Amino acid sequence: MHELGITRNIVAIACDSARGAPVRRIRVEIGKLSAIMAESVRFCFDICTEGTLADGAELEIVEIPGRGRCRACNQELDMDLPYGCCSCGSTQIEIIQGQELTIKELEIDTLCA
Ligand SMILES: [Zn+2]
In this predicted model, what pLDDT tens digit does every residue of 12-62 receive, in sequence order? Predict the structure, then answer.
């Protein structure tokens, strides 16, 4: 399950950015064509945050739908899979959205100086 490594990365980046402050909430965007299962990330999240700054943090996952552009006719189309066929018959489709994995928002406890 490669989501375990990915989730570890998300948690590591979040904790890094928090600079020592407890992380309250992490919002990530996962593209539907990224081959990352949102449910698996959610499942791994509790394991990966244990003992870190993000322990007990809330994980919010936003799924980004797939979009592609046909190289032959330049038409944009919705995609559920990372490959497909345009209505013009071409299979040369460039994926323009849906492969991303982005940490969108991080909510941390601000420490009083
Ligand atoms: Zn086309």
Answer: 999 999 999 999 999 999 999 998 999 999 999 999 999 999 999 999 999
- List the domain boundaries for the chain: 3-108
Q: Determine the CATH number of domain 3-108.
A: 3.30.2320.80
CA of 82 to the centre of ligand 1 (A): 16
Tokens 């799924």 -> residue: 63
Distance of CA 95 from the midpoint of ligand 1 (Å): 13
CA of 32 to the centre of ligand 1 (A): 21
Q: How far is the CA of 80 from the centre of ligand 1 (A)?
A: 17
Could you tell me which residues come within 8 angstroms of residue 97 by beta carbon, excluding any fewer than 6 positions away?
31, 64, 65, 66, 67
Distance CA 68, CA 71 (A): 9
